[in-house]
Amino acid sequence: MAVSNLDELSSSSQKVLEHQDETRLVGQYYDDKTARLVRKYGPGPRIHYHVGHYPSSRTPVDVHEATPDDIRRSIRLHQEGLLRYAAKIWGAEHRLSGRILDVGCGLGGGSLFWAQEYGADVTAVTNAPEHAPIVERFAQESGVGEKVRTLVCDAMHLPLDGPYDAAVAIESSGYFNRPQWFERLARVIRPGGSVCIEEVFITRPHGADVWSEYFYTKPATVRDYAEAARAAGFELVDDVDATSETAPFWEESTAWTKAVLDSDNSLSAVERRQLRISLMANQALGAEWRAGGLRLGFLRFELK
């Protein structure tokens, strides 16, 4: 075998190993965050880990006077509101009511939402092994245990057990190799089916730094997504900007963290440190959101 071919194989193997390491890192990151996610966004069964949608672009509670529980209830209400807004944009009653993939499902809030609200048969995909039994338990508690199944796997290696009517990714696609992901989706989504993405997109380099450093993700532009999708046979048919209506989430998230730090004397030193890191990240993200360095968008692609 020629030396150049050996070099190509070595490079390819290295990329595979690097991807596997990144996948394990992200899975471990979310496994480690489980208890904190439940505390902030719980108790469930529909727990979401994404921003909220605020139609008036303002917080409905006085974040300076509200208790942590008051703020948490508002956050959860507006996280559900984001899914309802997405459902309206994407025509969920006919596009997300069949067999769908929820890729990067977190603790399953979105999976339960699509199953309960639209009767979808959902495959909830996660690479965090500890999350799968939690999603299954929440699905049983919600009465949709037969409509939600969990699958622990890499999004690049979705099983070829389609066809699916659609795939949904709520603030999870930033972790994926976009060209490979769309290529895989093209093999499991039926012709005319949709890929629905709610994601944070970059508009300038610093925005990418703020987002990626805290969440270990790899943000990109809408154009990056469109090009990767087009190469795999998908067409971008919807692009809705909701940056201003989601900005208040960071104010509420910051306020919740401050309120917990001020009121909970049972926190350990480690927990206080984690909350302070979260506080600084939330403040930085809110500032970048308002400055226009990050954009929150809803995209829908159709397979030609």
From TrEMBL:
InterPro entries: Erg6_SMT_methyltransf, Methyltransf_25, SAM-dependent_MTases_sf. One of its GO terms (molecular function) is methyltransferase activity. Residues 100-193 form the Methyltransferase domain. It comes from the Bacteria. Keywords: Methyltransferase, Transferase. One of its GO terms (biological process) is methylation. PANTHER family: GERANYL DIPHOSPHATE 2-C-METHYLTRANSFERASE, ZGC:194242. This is Methyltransferase.
